Records
---
Amino acid sequence: MYHLMQRRLSGLVSLPCGACGALAVHSSEPLCAACWGGIYLAADPKPISLSFTAEGSSWLPYGIPEVKRVMGALKFRGHDRLALQLGLAMSRALPRPEVDVLVPVPLSPVRQYLRGYNQAERIAQGLHLGWGVPVATDLLHRRGWTSAKQSARTEAERQKIYGAYQARADPQWRGVRIALIDDTLTTGSTLNAAAEECIKKAKVAEVVPLTLAYATRRGR
Ligand SMILES: [Zn+2]
């Protein structure tokens, strides 16, 4: 009787959509049907190639309002399940890359503490569910002193990002092909700096960049 009641009650529970706040979302879904639909309509995979990477790809154009709302929601505490679901959706939309491990771009420890999770790591876990490629979080680290204020808004701030990443010179990573996972591609300087460090220090064979979204020019 108790279980039956519980089941009935759980069927009635509506959580707000993580992106638009609309109610009437099934409790296992982080987004409402309209927001999922908006994302799939907006999806426009684009190849990414940086000076230290092989060709990778990005799934969603950031400039579309529906995408912007969902990407904004990724950065709030409590929306880590959304990042995982988006990673899983991305794994179904994009071809599986020829890599051995998925490496999420790390957040600074301060920011990770404030947010409660690293969204790039959750996206990587979603990709892992879809592709079966393991996630490695001990290859690349971010130096502890990098504060939350050092987000790359200006060129000077971007320059500071160089040197912020440290890869482990562990023989297990030598010759391994990795996919570097991040939430949004803007200038590519973060991914490129991280890729350079993985190649030079950890001696990985190849870095394939993969991001959930990419920045677009205004109005596009
Ligand atoms: Zn919604």
---
Amino acid sequence: MTDYLYDAARRLIAFDTVSAHSDIAAIEYLAAELRARKFSTAIQPAELGGVAQANLVAWAGPARGDGLIISGHVDTVPFEGQPGWTRGALALEVAGDRIYGRGTTDMKGFIAQCLEAMREFDLGRLARPLVFVFTASEEVGCLGAEKVGPALRRILGETPVPRMAWIGEPTSWAVSHAHKSIVLFDIAVRGRGGHSGAPAAGVNAIAVMGRVIAAIGAIQEERRANPRPEFRAIFPDAPYDVLNFGTIAGGIALNMIAEECVLRISYRSLPDADPLELYREAARRVRALDLHDFASRTAEAVIELRPPMVVPPLNSPRATPLERALFEATGANDSGGVLFGTDGGWFAQSGIVSLICGPGEMDQAHQPNECIRRDYFERGPGIVRRVIETMCCRA
Ligand SMILES: [Zn+2]
């Protein structure tokens, strides 16, 4: 195994690409590395979540159909303030049979493997296009992929947009063709403030939010009670829509009537469902609520469901050439679902069929002292080369 693989991972991890910060320096590094290997490159700048970000598209091979996209996101989840770190998050560290650093698993390790796979690869062997797409802001709603998916036709010009994408998210080299959609939204309750000694003069927003939680929680109970048997195989833990009350904030003092309360909710719907169906159902239930608090029957609270943010689901067909190529290269022999969302949901909206398969381990993603097994890491470049040979080099 070469020093280059480790060096590439070390350099990628050293860029602080937490989604709230710019990824441009990391994208420019990747572009320079791939240009040095004779790839054509295009950097797509985008203002995402108020931050200057960029996606990278790098391509090679003849302008024919049936090419392959290999994709990964460059951003990471935060590490500052996360309890449990005993190592430097931005300094790759090899210890025992593991490599540590934020992004080793999710998912700079895979991107380093792509670079290593191309280090001595003769692009003249490509019979079909090979396209790397490295994205920004995946961890905050796949915002980079939402931008780059529809732009690929323009960026690639003469080269037809490949209909298949391989995304190297952490699966311990298992193959996945499906994930649920993800929807995030806030609910704000506005009551009326005042002294806690005279509750009837106000409306307590926290109290009314309690009704909201019970009403939306009831949706979760109903879904859990009615699992969908056809999804048992790919989502064995939850073959139904799952919902999470993420954060809640309301009130400012013990002796004041809470005037405002904001609840942040996320949910994940089965991949064959309209992602916004549950949002609309939540809105219906909230509209039917008693808007009084428990202290008086006079004034009512006002409830606002804020606009949702959606990451589309992934529900790729089985038995595709890419599935066969990944099985052959990794030794996997079945495909299932993953519990996280990916850029593949947005790629699917542009007609690109995505499969998820990567070296990291799901239980390491987003953890303190994030790490990757060295054997999974070092196997990667060979797997990447083999998939490229199967998909792009055979006549
Ligand atoms: Zn990821």
